[in-house]
Amino acid sequence: MFDIAIVGGGMVGAALAVATARAGMKVALLERQMPVTISEHSEVDLRVSAINRRSEQWLQDLGAWPQLMTSRLAPYATLRAFEGDAAPLDFTAAELGEDHLGHIIENLHIQQALWQQLPDTVERFCPVQLQGYQQMNDYASLQTDQGEIKARLLIAADGAQSQLKQLAGIGSQGWQYSQACLLVHVSTSYSALPMTWQQFTPQGPRAYLPLPGREASLVWYDDHLRIQQLAALPPQQLAQQIQQHFPAELGEFSVLKQGYFPLTRSHANQYVKGRLVLAGDAAHTINPLAGQGVNLGFADAQCLAALLIKQFAAGADLAAPALLAQYESERRKANLLMMSAMDVFYQVFSSKLTPLVQLRRLGLQVAAKAGPLKTYVGKYAAGLV
Ligand SMILES: Cc1cc2nc3c(=O)[nH]c(=O)nc-3n(C[C@H](O)[C@H](O)[C@H](O)COP(=O)(O)OP(=O)(O)OC[C@H]3O[C@@H](n4cnc5c(N)ncnc54)[C@H](O)[C@@H]3O)c2cc1C
Q: Cα of 54 to ligand 1 centre, how many Å?
């Protein structure tokens, strides 16, 4: 019998496995596909995340940060937002007395660093197929193609399409946004800038994220049809479209690869059901506009791990209803706040209504001068408050 069985060995599930196993819990980690091995020279994967300072600190605490290859990290010290020819709104690390605000890192790279930190005591089931799930009075069990796995507590960290959440009959509320986003990796004629920028246009934002070396990840938001058409273009034609629709500051570049993603918001109706608890994208998906998705997932994992470690040390039931209710209450509030803030942001910045366009330009100008408020927003985005 395991103390905990975690379904999903992505960034959130692997972080939870490291934290709980280190505290002495007997942990099973189930992952349906073997993690890809990343080396110094492998191609940069399309899926990257902006890792804020709070997540960075947690990865440090878990010992995973030093496992990351510095040559594959792209730090940024400025977050810039602008529209038209109005002056940009810059959040800088220097204003906060810091040397950076975060790093752009491939999801697979973070997952690998966390797997390298898994204690030997963690039993890995990978690749594994989940077939069913049951809850008993004092344990829960998973049916898999490798047999039955029993644990006091199950954690669903199996991403946005969580199978375990579906098996448990937990519903979600949410919607698909009217826009989709295209991710394009490009090689540039200059070394990555130590900044990320986002330009707002009536059709949707365009963003630049630095990647290591002379590469960058461009993000283009527009309606589904337009994004699908762009995603299907050969590299040279896509490059021409980018030249026409991205700011001239992008300079010379060539397209390396591209992929498109629908934008969905979903929030599970409950994070807890008996001996099952949800974390990360299994519990919530958020508009990636401000790159907060996995930062919320890591905050879930950090909160849940801290509660479980205390409970385990006291020799109490890891699935005690009061304990799991405390996790849900803390994290639901924080996640909802960030999701709602992103929605307001999305609505305001994707509007073509002239008064709103004027208002947001004005808003950016005012915000650029609003000292303490601006400092607070900068700290919030960097995960420093
Ligand atoms: C276009 C786009 C851009 C984004 N940009 C950012 C960003 O800049 N910053 C940011 O913080 N976030 C960003 N996100 C969100 C971020 O990618 C997710 O929040 C993050 O990947 C969630 O991590 P997770 O571990 O919860 O889930 P996942 O990364 O989805 O991992 C789930 C894991 O579970 C495994 N799994 C799935 N089903 C099963 C099963 N049945 N059995 C066993 N294993 C299973 C999967 O193989 C996977 O390894 C972005 C998302 C999108 C779509």
A: 18
Burial call 254-274: b when 16+ CB within 10 Å, e when fewer: ebbebebeebbbbbbebbbbe
Tell me, in angstroms, the distance from the centre of ligand 1 to residue 49's CA: 10
Using alpha carbons, select from 16, 38, 34 the residue that is nearest to residue 25: 16
Q: Yes or no: say if 266 and 339 are a contact pair by the CB < 8 Å rule.
A: no
Residue to substitute in 221, 281, 339, 346 for testing ligand 1 pocket (most ligand atoms within 8 angstroms of CB): 281
* Nearest atom, ligand 1, residue 8 CA: 34
For residue 3, give both structure tokens. Answer: 């103390």
**pLDDT tens track for 265-296:** 899 999 999 999 999 999 999 877 777 789 99
Q: Which residues, listed in sequence order, are joined to residue 90 by a DSSP beta bridge?
A: 80
319-366 pLDDT, tens digit per residue, is: 999 999 999 999 999 999 888 777 776 666 665 656 556 656 656 565
Angle at 279 between CA 274 and CA 282, to 5 degrees: 95
Domains in the chain, please, with CATH? Answer: 2-74+103-174+265-349 (3.50.50.60)
Residue whose C-alpha is closest to residue 384's, from 55, 15, 78: 55
- Taking only the tens place, the pLDDT of each residue in 121-159 is 999 999 999 999 999 999 999 999 999 999 999 999 999
Binding pocket residue ranges, ligand 1, CB within 6 Å: 7-13, 30-33, 49-50, 107, 130, 157-159, 163, 181, 183, 261, 280-281, 288, 291-295, 297
Please report the atom of ligand 1 found closest to the CA of residue 280: 26
Task: Give residue 112 CA to ligand 1 midpoint distance, Å.
Answer: 14
How far, in Å, are 39, 40, 366 from residue 93 at the CA level? Answer: 30, 28, 20
